[in-house]
Structures are given as C-alpha cells and as structure tokens.
## 1
Amino acid sequence: MKTILKLFTMLFCVVSFAQTTVKGKIIDNTGLPLPGANIVVVGTSSGTITDFDGNFTLTVTQEPPFSIQISYAGFETQTIEVTTNNQTVDVTLAEGNSLDEVIISASRTPERIFESPVTVERFGLKEIKNTASADFYGGLENLKGVDVNTSSLTFKSVNTRGFATTANTRFMQLVDGMDNSTPALNFPIGNLVGMIETDVQSVELLPGASSALYGANAFNGILFMQSKSPFDHQGISAFVKRGITSQKAAGDNDYTDLGIRMAYKFSDKFAAKVNFGYLHGTDWAATSEVDSDVFGGTRASNLNYNGINVYGDEVSANLNDLAGGTGIVPDVFVSRTGYNERDLTEHKAESVKADWGLYYRPITDSNFEIQYVGKVGTGTTIYQGTNRYNIDGFFQQQHKLEIKNDNYFLRGYVVADNAGDSYDMVFTGININRSWKSDEAWFGDYINTYVAATLGGGATDEQAHAAARAAAESGRFEPGSEEFNSAFDRIIKDPDLATGSRFQDQSKYYHADGNYNFSHLIDFVDIQVGGSFRQYDLNSLGSIYTDIDGPIKYSEYGFYTQLQKNVELSDMMALKVTASARYDKSEFFDGFVSPRLSLGLTLNENHNIRASAQTGFRNPTTQDLFIGLDAGRAILVGSAPDNLDRYSRDYTANNGMVYTQTGAAAYNNSYTASSVQQLAATGDPTVLEIANPNLVSPEKVTSFEVGYRGKFNKLTVDFSTYYNKYQDFISSEVVIAPLYGSVADGSAIAAIANSDFTTYSTYTNSDVDVNSYGASIGLSTKILSDFDLGGSYTFTKQDFDQAANPNFETYFNTPEHKFKAHFGNTELFKNFGFNVAYKFSDDYFWEATFGDGIVPEFHTFDAQINYKIPSLKSIIKIGGTNIGGKEYFTIFGSGYIGSMYYASWTINNL
C-alpha cells in the first residue's frame, strides 16, 4: 500500500513548464470543422486533439523549430513546421480514402492499409459515427467478408471465411490487447462485457489464419478493438439511445442503451479515464416448433417429436423395449411432452459494464507509458451451444498491467468469470417433467393405457396412443401454475443435471505477452520478436468440466519473429517482403511452427498487388479436452488422456444389472451412430461399424492468398482470394458405446439390440480432406460530388465430401454468396447527414450439436439520419435496422431477428 501511495504522489505532483504554444483550426475542403483531429509533435508523444469546432491549443516544452503532424481518419495527413512561439496554424485537410488509413494489426507495426501484406478491414471513427446499425459492434456486419451470427440481442459472434459456430473458438477478439474470450467456454462473447461506443478509437479485422503472429486461437481471423487514450481524448462524452425492438413472437418492446466516458489529463505525465455502459431490452424470442428429427413432424404426427425450441421432449424411449418385448406393445420410440422456451425464460437482455484506466508517462517528451486497465461486466442474455442457455447475471472481469513505447510492449492480464444464476433450458424442461412424474412412471402409464385401450377398448393404434399420452400427462405442471413456478425456481438453482439445470463456473486464465521492434536500431531490415504465455484454471465445480475434485490447470506458450524489408525497385515500383514464424507449445501436444511469407508490390503509388502463403494451427479448446457434460441428446466427453476416466456414471441395463461406464468407452469401445441407425432399420448386425475415434490433436491449415488494392481517381478497389487446406480438422463425432460386450469381437451386438448403450459426442480429428476457398471484392467511390457509395461481394465455398463421411460434421455454417452496399453523405446540407446499408445473404445449411437445419436467404435494409448541433457539441441520430423487412435468423434454432428503431443523443464524442 505504501508503494502505491508513493506512486500516486509521484503522478499527481508532476509539474511541467510550457515553452511553446501553437493554436489553430482544422477544417475539411468544404470548410467544415474536423472535431477530434490529432495534432502530434513529430518524434514525441506530445499532442492534442481538436474540439467540436475544430479548434486546438497545443502547449509543449520544445523550442522552435519543430514539426507537428495533423491527421484525421479518412483524410490525408499533413506535416507543418512550427517556427515561432504562439504561432497560429490553420489547416485544410484533403479527403483521402480508406486505403490511406493506418493500421497496426497486419504486421504489429504501423502501416497503411494500402501496403498491408494481408487482407485487413478497418472500422474507424467515421464509420462508427455513421453506421446505420444500432451500435458499432453490429456495424461490423457491413464489413467485406464478415459474418455476424446472432444468438440473441446482446450475444453476437463475428467470423470470417467459414466454419462458424456460436462458440467461435476459431476466431480471436482483442480489446486493448486483452483476449476477451470467456475462461470457461473459451470463445469470444461479443460486446456483452466489452467497450462502450464513445470510447472506441478503431476496430481492425484480419480475416483468415493469423497464427504466425498471434498464436493458436487466431485461426480463422482476429478482431482488434482499440479504445481512446485519455492523453489524446479528454473530457466527458456520453450517449443515450432509446427505441424499440419489434418481433412477431415477442411484440414491441422498449430498448435502452446508454454510456458515459470521463477522461482527464492531469499533466503531460498522468491521465486517467472511466467508462460506464448500460443496455436493457427484450431478447429475440425463439419459438420454433420444427421437429429436429423428422422433416415436417409435429407433436400430433410424430410420437417421438423433438421440437427445436421445446425442452423436455428430448427424453424418449422404445415402448417395446420397456415392456420387455411384449408383442402387443409397438416397437416405436415415444418422447415425453416438453415445455416451450417462452415458458422457461423471460427473454431479458441486459448488459452492465464499466472500465477504468490509469496511464503514466514518467519521461518528458517520451512515449514510454505504464498502464493499469480494469474491466468488469455483467449481463443477461441467451446463448445457444449444445443446448439453449439462459445466461443470467454472468460476470467477467479483466485486469491488465502494461508498459510500452513505440518499440515494445510487455503486458500481463488475468480474465476471470462467474456464471452467476445461469441455467440450461433443456434440462430445466426435462427436470420439471421429472418433478411431477418420473420417466419410469410416465412411460409405465403410457404403456399400460395403450395396452388397455387396444385390448379392452378396441381402439385403433392412433387412438390408443392419444389415450396413452393423455393418461401419462395426468398431473403435468402447467406453465404459470404455482406448482410449475415452484419446481422451476428449485431446478434452476440446482447444479446436479439429474435433478436441476444450473451451471456453475469460476474459471480464469492468466496471460502475458510482449513484443520488441528493432527498427530504431537496425536500418537494413525491420525485425520484431515476441512471445506469449497462458495458464488456464478451469473451475466449473463439475457442472461443465470433469473438475468435480478441484480445478484443472494447464498452460501453453509461444514465441515468434518477423522480418520486413522495403525494396525500391524503381521510381514507380516498390516491393515489401514480410517473413514471420512462430513456435507454439501446449503441455499436451508437440510444439508447432507457423511460418508466413508475404510479398506486396506497389505500382505507381496507386496499385498494390499482394500474395501470401502461411500455415496456422489451433490447439484443442478447453471443451475439446476436459468437458464432461450430459447434454441430453448425447454426453459430451473431452479427449484429454486423463479426462476419459474422470467422467464416470452408473447405468441400469434392461436386464436389471448396473454397469459403470467411463468416458473412455466412447473412444475405445464404440460404434458409429449412423451404423447403429442402419441396424435399427435393417436388423442386419453386419452393418455395424466400429468408431473408436482417435484422441483430439491440434488442427493445421495451409493458406494461400492473393489480393489487389487500387485507386482509380475516385474509385477504390480491394480484392482478395484465398484457398485453405486443413489437416487433422477438429470436429465432433457422435458414437454409440454399449454398456457391456466388446465391439472388437462382436459381443456388444446384444447390448445394441437391447438398447443398452450410451450416446456420446466425442472430440476428434478428421482423416479426410477438408478444404475451403473464396473471394471478396469491395468497391467504394464518391458520386455526385460528395456522396459516399460502396459495396462488396463475398464468395465462400467448402470442399468436403459429406456423403462419404456421414458421421463427421465440419460446422461450415456460411452462406456461399453475400452482397453488401451502403450509400450516404456526412454533410447532405449543413450539419445534416445520412447513411443507408443493404445486406443480402444466401441460404446455407447450419450444423451444430443443438440442431441442424436450413438458414433461409435474407435481405436487410438499415438507415439513419443525423443532425449535428455544434453549440451543444451534440449529434442527434434517428435510425432503424431491418426496416420493414422480413424477420430472419442466422443460426438454426435461435430467435427470429426482427426490426429495431431508435433515436440517440451523443454529446462531445470527438
């Protein structure tokens, strides 16, 4: 504590002595002020930004002469010489284009998008302010080649180039350098506990494999979100957004989103900021009663009905097996009657988040900086994974310490979560059913009534089944009744899935990474080196992982280097060569090297051709390794060697004997699910196929990419095409493990015939070829003098023989064709602007453990108008998403996405 007090005393007692003052105004070529333009003394970190009217005052310790650099997103940067004290500098910036904007993600060093060695997308301040989406995170959907899969109003998953899931472990998301994936689930959670809009400086996105610089998780792409520095952006800024969400299933409901940012620069050496955000609304209700097992099936037409958003009907049994083979009892499967999702959740959507930072620059006129950043957030939403989960009071926190300057950074942070009062809606439905009548009693009533109706009443088969279900349903808890509410409240607080549905988690991970750039020391080539280390501490208390006896800990590390060289071939031609390699090692697997080589040829300053070849890999996730979860449809068992026997359960066979089975049976004594289905259809045991999947190992990809960026007067072109070849592709495989007997010698056939088996979902690698390829092109221009017009087309295709591999799902889950367009004007007339955006998505087939089905094609139209009030430093925006459009969904089994209409007031967001 004494050390901390001394540090704060140092920070607040800094005195600076001003020597030179520069004042001025920054405008665009139409005479309009540019608020938030950056003015920096060249070669130092000293600088300021313009106010809402474009004015600035810069006071520094340097004596003239020195140079200042003036920049603003979307405009060409200018450098001005300062020769006297109290000099006035009025500058008109010429409008540039998106290719001139500077990014750091592609090579971990500042460079123009135009010269980037790989494909990169950027969403800057201009795009954030003008997006027609309800928030900046939703606006990412308008970027070329980007897919945003919506589980719920506040839970969205960003992906590129295929293989998308709601748990998108192939894609990494960094907020101020910190991975914001949840420790328990091991995937990004969108912006549920992320940044508020007024604190966003820029968003950069790298599609495709980025393992060579960013490690194993950056397999399908990586999203960088950078916040504003309190040294550059001071003051109080805030926004409030009010509107409605409109959906047929949920009706019209209020929507509120607000945030406030407070930042203060105490001196040239110390600055601090605090952010707070709050969102409240009603989620997109999921009400599908589509039968997940039989096309066109309903409760009335299918005895074994399993509705997509109906929970509890997953429990089913073969009546003849239960009756001991009695001839009068039909050989059919019958499922219990479930409860609709709307009976098991309020569809509440809420997010509360806050972050703060302390920033210290101890050396005058140096950009050496020490940071402490803390982030906390809690939220309520719906997440769709193996089942549908009501995430209630989920809490995540991050704490980071970082030192950095232009040439290096070293950071360490911890990410911890708590599942709060979250629960599994599938098991909520299952166990409400069991609370009023056990499965044994329910099926017993069903069989007895069926036999009585058939033998004694002369009922037809259809009539007997109807009477049997009515009798079995006697005593059912009706939604809303006191008995139902009491059972519901008890079950969602019980973490034992045999009787409850709550899932618990208090997992965390510790991460450290650093990077050093030798470009200031070495002239002939830019050299960077870096590395990272991460330790996982899984603690789900046995509700997700096999950690009932205590937390599971494991670690991984990696290090990399990159060399970059610019070669002037002629006055009109330059070549940039970038070569990098990274070595990564998990304690469970052998190390792996990921190299990347890229070439960028610039012609005549307006054309750039790039080509790259790289390999990438991803380690199996925490779920792939350590999950041990009965999901109802199947038991999920991770394939870490010491995990197999940690999952153990007792089962009572139809012969009355009790068998103990561990997760090892799924990998060492199992049949393929499809062959067991064939046996049921044909009665021929020779069709049975041994599964025994291999334990999961790292997945690898070899990626080739070619691209072009060009400027033709006002037209900007950005094109890329790629081909990915995967090896040891990680996915799940459903297998059937008999309770007794061996699949090797055929003695397990009797167990299968008697329905004495367990269904498992295993984690393994495919030994078949999985490839994908695609292309994207984006065009943008100015028309009618100052109207922005742009659009993009993306083609994505998977090359995989599903018919030859019926038991293996790749979860490609990506439309083959996408088209996006936007049109707008930031200054249609004085202080008034607008923007409209259109999106088209082709239909595609969605594969997931929760359910498989078609996602139909959809079209959306978003629009906003905005008006600036300079005297109040305010912007008023009115807009809507999916305006007047047809409701659609991006994930099979999720709620239909309706329309949103909103009005917002933003103050002092420079």
## 2
Amino acid sequence: MDALRRLRDGYAPRRQGIQPQSGPRGSRGVEDHVSAPQQQVSNKKYVYDFTEGNKDLKDLLGGKGANLAEMTNLGLPVPPGFTITTEACCVYLDSGVEPTALRDEVSAHLDALERRMGRELGQPDDPLLVSVRSGARFSMPGMMDTVLNIGLSDASVAGLAAQLGDERFAWDSYRRLLQMFGRTVLGVDGELFEEALDEAKRAKGADSDLGLDAADLRALVDRFKAIVAERAGREFPQDPREQMDLAIRAVFDSWNTDRAKLYRRQERIPGDLGTAVTICSMVFGNLGPDSGTGVAFTRDPASGHQGVYGDYLQNAQGEDVVAGIRNTVPLAELERLDQASYAALMKIMETLETHYKDLCDIEFTIERGRLWMLQTRVGKRTAAAAFRIATQLVDQGLIDEAEALQRVSGAQLAQLMFPQFDLAVADSGSVKRIGWGIAASPGAAVGKAVFDSYTAVKWSRSGERVILIRRETNPDDLNGMIAAEGILTSRGGKTSHAAVVARGMGKTCVCGAEELEVDTKRRRLTAPGGLVIEEGDLISIDGSTGKVYVGEVPVEPSPVVEYFEGRMHAGAEEAGELVRAVHRIMAYADRVRRLRVRANADNAEDAARARRFGAQGIGLCRTEHMFLGERRELVERLILADTDDERHQALGALLPLQKADFIELFEAMDGLPVTVRLLDPPLHEFLPDITELSVRVALAEAREDANENDLRLLQAVHKLHESNPMLGLRGVRLGLVVPGLFAMQVRAIAEAAAHRHSLKGDPRPEIMIPLVGTVQELEIVREEADQVIADVEAATGTSLKLTIGTMIELPRAALTAGQIAECAEFFSFGTNDLTQTVWGFSRDDVEASFFTAYLEKGIFGVSPFETIDKDGVGALVRSATEAGRATRPGLKVGVCGEHGGDPESVHFFHHAGLDYVSCSPFRIPVARLEAARAAAGR
C-alpha cells in the first residue's frame, strides 16, 4: 500500500491521507476519535509548549510552531500557547482518526495555559480565547486554515465586553469567529458571509466594517448563525472545547485541500509532511485606535534594500492585513501612531535578523499599546532581493560565501534573465498608464485581462497570455495565479495574499492599485477618467515600479543578460547593485563547482554566445540542423540515389558544406571540447510531408502534368514511412544502412580539425554515435571512422586527437554499458530519448494528451521531461556510469538532454558522478550556479 501511495503521489513520497466517511466537515470533534483498532499504544509526545521547542524542530513543530518557540526562548513578547506536532497530523491523515493520546495531551496543555492566564477557555465572565492556526515545515501562505477567537459563545460574549469595556469589540470578535469557523470548519461558502456583511454596511451607509456599531454587529452575529445553521446543517457549537477540537481537525484536513496540494506541486513540497497546529492565546488588534496589527520585513522582500518595510492596519485583526480586504498604511507610519511600539518593533526586528542571519518576515499585534509577536519566519523574497541580500549578509559578516551560495537558486537567476519593460518607451507617453499600485513582485508581464481564476486557466491552456485581475486574491485563486503571466489587485499591500504568493512563485504582481475600480461580476476594470478595460483587452503591468498600462509595452534585455553577454562589466557604474551581486556569487560558484557546463549549440553564433555565458565546450552539436534550408535538396538527392555513383555525388556535395560548418564551430570553441553527434533523425524528416506531396502529385496527374522528381520523392516517402519513426531507422542504424553517410561526416570533422591545426588553432572535436543499443553497432561504425581519421591524418600530415564515444539513450545501452565502454571513449546521456524509452512515452503525444491529468492526479510531481526521474531514468544513469567506468577507468561521462539545465537534475548529475552537463546557451548560467550549489551543499 505504501508503494502504491508513493507511485500515485509522485517522486517525493507523500501520504495522500484518508478522509473519514462522515457527514459535513467538522461534524465530529477530537473526542469522537480517541480510539481505533489500527493504532498502537505509544509514548510519543504529540504536544509541545512554546517554551519547549526551538527553530530547529520545524519538521516536528512546523515553521510557525518552531519559530514561536524560538522567539519565546529569546525572551520576546509571545502570547503563551502550545503546538500539536506534524506527526499527529500524519497519523490522522493516514488513519482518519487522531492519535489515542492526543486528546489527553491537549487537555493537559490547555489546563496549564488556563492556569497561566488565570481564566478558562470560553469562561462566561472572563473568557480565554485562542487561535488555532496551521504551520507546515515549509511556508504555504494562505493555503491552509486558521481560526481566530475560539472560545467565544453566546454565554461569553457579554463577559468579554465587560472585561474590556468595549461592547462593539466583543460582537465584532464574535462575528469574525462565526465567519471563519463557518467557512473553514463547517464548509460554508464564504461569499454568503461577505454578502451579509456588505448588506449590513449598505444599510448603515458605511464604507467599511469600522462604520458598524455594537447593535449592527450583534444583528450580524444573528445573521451569521442563521447562515451556519442553514448551510452546515447544524448550529454553531457553543461548547468552547468542541470549537477547538473541530478547528484542530479542520486544520489537519486543510493539508489535503485541492489548493494545498496544487501549491505543493507548484513548489515541489513533499506531500507526506503534514501540518502542525498552533494553539495560541489571543491578543487583539481590534480594540480601538491604540491597537492594530501588521506584517514587517527586516529588508524589502521585493528589492533586498535595507530599511523599514511592511504594512500596518489600525484597529484590525491579523487576517485583515493578509487578506488585503482593507488597504494598509506603510509600516513607517506606525512611528507617528505609536512611537513606543514602533521603537520596540525595530529593536525586535534587528534581534531576529541577527539571530536568523537572514531576512525575517514578522507578524505582530499591538493590543492597547502593548506589542506582541505572533510569528516570524525566513521571508520569501524576489529573485533580485535574494542575490542582493545574500551578498549584503556576507559583507555584514553574518554569513560566508558558501552560505550565500545556498541562499540563491538557479530558478531565481533565470527570473533575473527575463526581459523587462523599456522604461524609455513606458515613460514617454506613447503608451497610456492607467494606474499605479504597489510594486509587490518584480518583472514585466503583458497579457489579456481576465477577472477570475477559471478563465485564466482556460485561456492559458489555449495559448493566451493573461493577467489575472482581482480586488484581492484568496487561496482559491491559486490555479489562476499559476496560469497567469502576472497578477493585478486593487486592494492589499506587500504582505497581502497576492503579493506573498506571487513572490514565492516568481510571478509579476502589482497590488493595491486603488484608483482602478475592479468589477469582477461585469468582468471589467474602470480606470480614472472613465477608461474601461474589458475582459480580453491587452494590459501590461510592471512589478518593479507598480505601474499599469493599457496595451503592450515593449521589453528590453535584462541587465543580468547584458552582463552575461559581456556588454556590461560588473565594475561599471551603470551595472548597479544587482549585477554586482550576481557577479560575486557566480565568480564564487565557478571556483567551487566540480561539474563542468557545456552548451547544446549547432552553429558558430550559438557557440560564441554560449562561450560568453560561461560554457566550457559544446556537449551536443546536432548535425541534422546543418542540413536544413537550401541544403535539404542535397539530402533529397542522397535519399533518391539509385546507384553508388549518385550516392557518392550527393555525399561529395555535402562534404564541403559540413566541413565549413565545423571550421566555424571549432574556431568559436577553440581550446574547448566540441561533441558532434552524427546524423540522428529519420531520413523522412528531410522529405516533404506525405499528405501534401500526395495531393501535389495527384493534382499534377489530373492535369496530365506529372513531375518525375515528385513521383520519385513520393516513392521514397512511402518507402521510408514508419509507424513509429522514433524507434525506427535513425541514429547509428542510418550509419549502418546508408553507405558513406557517417564516413562523410567523420571526414568533414577531421578535415576541419586539420584545417584549424594548420592555422595554429586548438580544435578538440569529439565524435558521438547516437542511438547505440549494442556494442557491435558501435564497433562497426568506429572501425570505419578510425580509418577515415587515419586517411585524413596521412593526407594532411596532422596528428588528430579525436575521441569517439556514444550517446546512451536506450535502456539496453544503459544496461550493457560495461560492454559498450570497451569501444566508447566517452558516454553522453541523451536523457530526453532515454526518458521516452524508459517510460514508453512518445513525448509529443503524451504531453498533448494525458500529462496534465497525470500531474493533477499526482502521478507525477513534475514532468519527467522537465526534471530527471531519479528512480527510473536516474537509476540507469547511475548504473551505466558505474559499469562504464568499471570497464574503462576515467571514462568521461556527461548529459546532453535539456535536463542538463534543470536545477534539480543538475544536483542529481553531480551526485551521480558525471563530469559535465550540457544545455541550451540561455540556461548555462543556471547550470553553473546549481553545479556549485550541489558541490557546496550543506
């Protein structure tokens, strides 16, 4: 069963979780699940007080619980509470019931909390209220559930009002509990509560919920309770302990919601980790103007610049900030509103950044002038911020260069290489700016306006670029956020759901564009001056400046690409802090990596660019690309040749063209290895399409104007037609079946190398035989190649050091690698075809048909054509490398599939002991960085 579950959930083992067969969500509490025959008696500890843990226990306590414990240990003002472990969640998800000991442990910790606070949970005259919050090992912002104000009831709301002297606050807290509990625990549609709240505001003529008085909120509580009773099929629970138990179970369940699973697939987070649950005594930011809540960053998560960054909202609870339903003020404004709390917060921020040695993301609440810390974590950041912060922390002496290397990633570097808007055009007035919001996540995004997640996904799958526009996003918008080029909201700040999730995904995002009126029901956006943007209209958003434009703004190359291209020197004044940071980290990366990085390049122009990007040779030159265009006619002559003489003439015409190509290539890569793959694809790919040619011949015959060459071509197309050409006459089989083909290519390579030697060059060609399945094939081709090379050496008086190896792209080749190494001087894994043949997939067919379903069902965590399948294809790579080197010690081994530029795959190839990876020129910097991160991994 475990093996089946792992197969279903992808490469990272994950527990799918078994949902109990019960009524409406939350209809049973923890007390209903205290025994189960499959559970074993265990002394395992499932609950930890905040005073017991530390930041290193994230696997057990989740990020939130571990960091609350760490802040408690540091003596920072943290409300008392306790954490239920991820292990308890995993037991529940596997069996459908909580661990037997959990209820008693929760009761013991709740009793201790009540003694410490001097009041009991939900006590009628002076209630203790708690929050129940999720907190996994990895941050999953907004993907799982939270419930605040647990303990409020009809009996205790008056006691809360009396204790705090604020009747409005008490009823506001109660309506918040009903709203969150109803939506999160009982599964009631959250829109029903929002509509009731909007109706109450309209009746009062209020712009926000702050305009509602105690009587209004009391009436709203009654309305919310009626909604719960009608939609959940039960009354809102008045027993405080039942509220807490149901909330705990809801948080456990939220680990396996569709949005949580989708986020984990997007971020490649294993599915078997589970979530911890923190139960924390409530502190209130909605007690009046001397109270509030906020989110702070110790550095700007968008740019990495040092300073005061964050959002603050007076008279509000924490969810109001994250949800973005009310626009916040900048954190710096808190100094004017509450100087003492601001000063205390600044001191704590400095303490936390120094302690964690990284950018910290902090949630806090001020209750009547007293500051409380509710959460901290190492903050998500943009790609630019990641590189800047890493080098800043090195300069401050907080981390060393090796740690800085681990603070950035190849995926972030790739983001920095994307084009950006041409500001000269954007600011010239030739394009119309319609709004200006908060620059929440940088980048340049252009697409058609869409106003809901469903449309974003639908249009994106049809090939459209879209910008998702919402008033504010919530976790249910995740699908659309993934599909969109960028996200635009009219509400919220840098810490809103849209901003945090977009930064984590590397998506362009502009938040809080208040001057834009978003009407999701009518699917339109109205800009100042009455300009209307309808769904489908093209807009552009700049996540680096917060500007929004109608139409398409042109883009220009990234400064990071200009640096890699050599058009900008890192020391130049115009380079800027970001380019200098990238340069420093890349220089260190090149010093520490073992794995060399080559390029897939087929011409001198690509080779020269690859060299500028840091390539250490060419790992794959696809010679079939040299036969396209005007040269296709020469290939047709070769295919149509009926006699040896005609075949020799065709090959003789191709030889000088191939030689000239290789001379240019060897010149561009002088002094570096160039692996040339002999012709690989089926010959029919060089002929006209069979349908088009058949129609052309039929029409010509109908006109009695038949063309002899077309007739011969049609005969050849029919003769070469294959049902499955990927496994047909291609690769080494062509060299064995078409006399002189491979010999011509080897001669062209050898003569080009001899020519470069005559010019005092240093050519280093490597000849690669494709699609070998047995050593006998390689032996025959090699014997012919060695003779050709010897002939060229004799004719030119040059000693050529050409190596001959093979491409391992068939399972049989991998399984017999020890035999093949007797004849091959190097291996290069063609992981694209090896993945196809291992899985039995035709890539072009399966990606268009069922791959989406496989990803959605969790069969794949990620496409095996994107990231190497470690358990299948990867196992063959490892075993073939070991077998090959057992036969030929020192055998050079590389990979030339596009996996060579995939960050996760690069780490695998490093640990598998390969000598190099090869990828497209644009991905070379990514591969360089990841090769170093793999070598210096901690």
